[in-house]
Design a protein that fits this description.
219 residues; mainly alpha; 6 helices
Length: 219
């Protein structure tokens, strides 16, 4: 007569050992829930990272366009300044000759020059011309437009940099959540209870860390 093992033919574990390492339905449900939640959070973090990459590209492209417009405005201001300097020379000659009518006629074509001459004439510390001195009275309107556009470009670049950095943090969260998925995946198939518990706890730590990174950057 052969003595059969009630635990199954070829079983190498005793009854208490099998009970120690047996997987319970509760554990199976817990792992399934953790895997599902972590998978959803991983997908969400990846989506947020991709979205921020798109936002970064959009703002950087817009900043480049705005900076180009600012450069055009400064170049236009340089051309206006050169023309107004030529007009001012003729104006100064007419004023020295006492031809006030010609002088007034000349500066009417340039509101910027006319306003600068008024400021310059009343400024005891002004330079030799409205165009000279440490703080010249003359400042063409296109330069003001260029300054405004340059500040706008700087803000757009900063916004793009913000999305770049935040997108990197979402990528880091995706990595943390992917590690958590790996831990949970191994825990779902391993039989040793201590290993299952350790992997589940480790995966939970990585899952919470990844979720915290996502939440902090969304607030």
């Amino acid at each position: 007569m052969y003595d059969l093992d009630v635990g199954g033919v070829g079983s190498s574990e005793s009854g208490p050992a099998r009970a120690e390492n047996a997987r319970t339905p509760r554990f199976e449900i817990l792992i399934a829930v953790l895997l599902g939640v972590t998978a959803l959070m991983t997908a969400g973090a990846a989506f947020l990272g991709d979205r921020d990459d798109g936002q970064q590209l959009r703002f950087l492209q817009q900043a480049a366009v705005t900076q180009s417009e600012a450069n055009d405005a400064f170049a236009n201001g340089d051309q206006v300044r050169a023309l107004d300097q030529a007009i001012f020379i003729e104006y100064a000659l007419a004023a020295q000759q006492g031809d006030d009518e010609l002088a007034a006629y000349l500066i009417q074509f340039s509101p910027d020059l006319q306003a600068a001459i008024e400021v310059w004439a009343n400024d005891a510390n002004g330079g030799e011309t409205p165009f000279s001195g440490s703080d010249p009275a003359y400042y063409p309107a296109p330069w003001a437009d260029g300054e405004a556009l340059r500040e706008q470009a700087a803000r757009e670049f900063d916004q793009g940099d913000f999305y770049d950095q935040r997108g990197d943090r979402f990528v880091a969260a995706t990595v943390l959540l992917a590690v958590a998925l790996a831990f949970f995946g191994v825990a779902s198939v391993i039989w040793l209870r201590r290993w299952r518990l350790g992997l589940t706890v480790g995966g939970s730590v990585f899952m919470v860390a990844g979720a915290a990174v996502v939440v902090v950057n969304l607030v």
